[in-house]
Write a structure and sequence with these properties.
The chain is mostly helical. Helices cover 43% and strands 10% of the residues. This is GntR family transcriptional regulator.
Length: 82
């Protein structure tokens, strides 16, 4: 799934959708590190703040957890706020 800059859906939501899809498909498993903000910037051609918003959305939905100084990882029970 690519990011469509002409799609009316906000870019950060598109990025979150891509990562959510990778989690649902099993490509990213619980405790796997998700791409860093820098990797998202390079891979999707987005601003760092947009990457940050995507991660914040995934975190609020319970898909990922962020550990300070370590990174952001797929939650043990993704998508359940647990």
């Amino acid at each position: 799934m690519d990011i469509d800059h002409f799609d009316p859906t906000p870019i950060y939501k598109q990025v979150a959708r891509v990562i959510r899809g990778r989690i649902k498909s099993g490509e990213l498993k619980p405790r796997d590190r998700i791409p860093s903000e820098s990797q998202m910037v390079a891979e999707y051609g987005i601003a760092r703040d947009t990457a940050r918003q995507a991660v914040a959305l995934l975190r609020s939905e319970g898909w990922v957890i962020t550990l300070p100084q370590r990174g952001t990882f797929v939650a043990l029970q993704p998508g359940t706020d647990a």
